[in-house]
């Protein structure tokens, strides 16, 4: 099969690799129909995630059809159309029993495109299939469903829930890329008083407004002053860092109110300064986290009910074999306006539900 292979920092190739097969009784092999690229993939290529070995197939988000299952798999069978989660869960270890699937200690967690071959390929082996793939209703398009593999669960769990967004809160989202936009959309479910999005690119600020941001501001236009003005000098109740650079994190800590929460979602490749000389007295809570994806079934139901935006987040479509072109467009988002790029396409008949 063809797959995108990481060859070391700064190097990838779309090349022939062996087809995956069943290795463990809990595995499933999925034919990839739709796949997308994550900002984390760009961090890997930059060398920010040294655990990824050269020769690894990248990618951790996909929709496809099950073609083979191991003898212990009970929840899906060949022919099922499924969402492949970015997190794999054994379901047995202490962390999985507590719904902390991202911290699985029995071979799960974030393994696809990280510790084992991932989804940016024609086929992918998914470990622990019973908890790591989700059957999809025909009414949910593949381009929409693939957003539930990572960005929506990450935004919801690591941003909104960790940040404890509540009705009436002032929420600031720093970074209006795909994760930041999903955070804006997910935060609206909790009826905050206002949502403010911060980004360098006007195109992304426009996208933030389209998914529910009440105010937007350029990162170079003194966002701290705007937040201060809109909160009578108090600061934001919740600030979500969705960039993954030190400057963004430090900006978040300056915008939060006493007693507020900073939820870090971004993947950081460099150290960020934690100014405890200012923060120790403010009773600020700072959270970090890798998504667990325990919320995926809930979010899938919400998407099927039309409660989550999706079309606003997908800006570019490519054929699967155009993987390298898609990466180029996605990596130059400031020039191309790319948010989520989707490769491939649906191979099923869409079911239209009666009104």
UniProtKB/TrEMBL annotation:
GO MF, any single term: zinc ion binding
Gene3D superfamilies in UniProt: Medium-chain alcohol dehydrogenases, catalytic domain (3.90.180.10), NAD(P)-binding Rossmann-like Domain (3.40.50.720)
Domain Enoyl reductase (ER): 8-343
PANTHER family referenced in this protein's UniProt entry, alphabetically: NADP-DEPENDENT ISOPROPANOL DEHYDROGENASE, ZINC-TYPE ALCOHOL DEHYDROGENASE-LIKE
Xref: CDD domains: FDH_like_ADH2
Name of this protein: Alcohol dehydrogenase
Keywords for this protein: Metal-binding, Oxidoreductase, Zinc
Family, as annotated: Belongs to the zinc-containing alcohol dehydrogenase family.
One Pfam assignment: ADH_zinc_N
Taxonomic lineage: Bacteria, Bacillati, Actinomycetota, Actinomycetes, Kitasatosporales
Cofactor dependency: Zn(2+)
SMART domains: PKS_ER
């Amino acid at each position: 099969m063809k797959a995108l292979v990481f060859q070391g920092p700064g190097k990838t190739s779309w090349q022939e690799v062996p087809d995956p097969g069943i290795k463990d009784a809990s595995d499933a092999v999925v034919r990839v129909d739709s796949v997308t690229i994550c900002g984390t993939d760009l961090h890997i290529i930059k060398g920010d995630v040294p655990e990824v070995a050269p020769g690894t197939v990248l990618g951790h988000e996909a929709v496809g059809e099950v073609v083979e299952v191991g003898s212990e798999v009970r929840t899906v069978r060949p022919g099922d159309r499924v969402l492949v989660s970015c997190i794999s869960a054994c379901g047995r270890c202490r962390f999985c029993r507590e719904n902390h699937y991202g911290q699985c200690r029995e071979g799960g967690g974030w393994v696809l495109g990280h510790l084992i071959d991932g989804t940016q390929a024609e086929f992918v082996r998914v470990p622990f299939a019973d908890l790591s793939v989700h059957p999809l209703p025909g009414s949910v398009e593949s381009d929409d469903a693939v957003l539930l593999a990572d960005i929506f669960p990450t935004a919801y769990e690591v941003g909104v829930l960790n940040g404890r967004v509540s009705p009436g809160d002032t929420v600031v989202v720093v970074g209006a890329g795909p994760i930041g936009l999903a955070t804006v959309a997910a935060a609206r479910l909790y009826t905050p008083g206002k949502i403010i999005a911060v980004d360098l690119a006007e195109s992304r600020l426009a996208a933030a407004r389209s998914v529910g941001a009440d105010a937007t501001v350029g990162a170079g236009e003194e966002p701290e002053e705007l937040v201060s003005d809109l909160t009578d000098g108090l600061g934001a109740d919740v600030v979500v860092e969705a960039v993954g650079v030190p400057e963004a994190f430090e900006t978040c800590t300056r915008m939060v109110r006493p007693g507020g929460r900073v939820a870090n979602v971004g993947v950081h490749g460099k150290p960020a300064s934690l100014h405890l000389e200012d923060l120790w007295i403010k009773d600020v809570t700072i959270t970090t986290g890798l998504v667990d994806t325990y919320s995926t079934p809930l979010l899938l139901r919400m998407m099927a009910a039309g409660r989550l935006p999706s079309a606003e987040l997908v800006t570019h479509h490519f054929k699967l074999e155009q993987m390298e072109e898609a990466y180029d467009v996605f990596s130059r988002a400031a020039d191309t306006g790319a948010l989520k790029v989707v490769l491939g396409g649906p191979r099923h008949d869409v079911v239209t539900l009666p009104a």
